[in-house]
Every structure is written in structure tokens, then in C-alpha cells.
Amino acid sequence: MATGTTQTSTDYIGHHLVNWSVGEGFWTFHLDTILVSGVLGLAIFFAMMAAARKATSGVPGAFQNFVEMVVTMVNNQVKDTFHAKSELITPLAITIFVWVWLMNAMDLIPVDFVPLAMHAAGADYFKAVPTTDPNLTFAMSITVFVLMLAYNFKFKGIGGFLHEALTVPFGKWLFPVNLLFRIIEDIAKPISLALRLFGNMYAGEMVFILLAVWAGAGFLWVPFASLLSLGWGLFHILIITLQAFVFMMLTIVYMSMAAESH
Question: Is 192 an active-site residue?
């Protein structure tokens, strides 16, 4: 990995951008993305379940207080944005925010730490940040897209959905134009949702990798590179939180648009 004497900077960067995978073509599975996202999802699920079981009406502990703060914040956002009645939206928004934040937060671990540990376990490549894998971000955005279509049919019915798709915004006589605009609008939603998260997290990861390369190659004094990494890491906390919040808010907005009629 980073300590290899014959490894160039290009090799080092390329090594950190390759997924641990099996299979070929369409049936290629990124094992690192599946493993890290699955472990984080299960960890937060059981942690929040334990917090719910141990919740007290008296003075809450630190973790209960944190969970209540997150749940209250997300619930307020749902109430302000989603005006229909649904028991799914708030749990969905909480899941997205917490899970995406945890996956983003893997970027704060030093770039060589997890890959070296997994290399010792037999993985030649390993990307520790699942949200830098477009397969994961697109899987999440497509799931939101399917739910959005389901909510369109649930709240408007097939007839109402077709009427809206064919008559908005230019009226029934321009239904081909209306339909074309609707298709473009609906396809753009999951694409923008996935690429926004992937692009921001990929860029953040690249900054950490470049700082490690420059320090290892002698372009930056190691203590100075460490200071830069610390500064970028502190700023990156804002980025990973903002990206999780944006993904959650856009999901709520899209579901709200699906539940409302023009």
C-alpha cells in the first residue's frame, strides 16, 4: 500500500480508488461498499433500538439526548415539508440522515488505516467510504425514485397521475411536450440526488489522498501535512453533515411533490 518502496504516486492514488470486488460486468459486486454500509447500518439500528428500550422520562443520558435531538430535528423538517399523512416519511428521513452521515463519516478515518487492515485480512483493494461508490448512491436514489412513483399512484391514483403528467404545465393540447418534460424531470431527480452525494464525497476523499501523497513524496513537511489534514477533517465534518441533510431533505421534498396534486 502506501509504504511500498516501488509504488508511485499514481499507483497509490489509483490503489485507493479501486473497490474490492467480485464478479464481472453488470454482476460485479463491490464487497467493501456492501460490508461497510451493512455494518454501519446494523450498528446504528441496534444502537438506536437500545436507546429506545432504555429511554427514560427522567434525566436522559448523553446518547438518548443525542437521539432525541436528531429525531426531533428530522421530524420538524418532515412536518414543515410533507403535508400529507404518511407513517413512512419520518422513519425514512431519519434512516437516510443517520445512515448517510455515518457512511460519510468514514472519510474522517486516515486514508491508509482501513485499507491496510483489510489488506492484512486478504483484500487487495478496499474503499472505506461507501458514498464514494456511485453504485451505492444510485441504489439509494433509485429506491427513493421508486417510492416517489408509489406515492404518486397512492395519493393520485393512476388516472390522476396520468392527468398530471399529460396536462401540466401547458394543458391537454400540448400533452406530448408535457409528457416529455415530466419524463426529464422525474429522471433528473434520482440522477442529481445520486451524483450530488457521490461527487462531494469523492472530492473530499481525493483531498485526503492527495495530502497523504504530498506528505509521502516530500512535497509537504509531514507535520504541516498533518495540520492541513486536521483542518480539512474539521471542515469536512460540516460537509458530511450537510450532504446527509441535503439527501434527506430532497427525499422529503420529492415525496411531498408526489403526494400533492397540481
Answer: yes
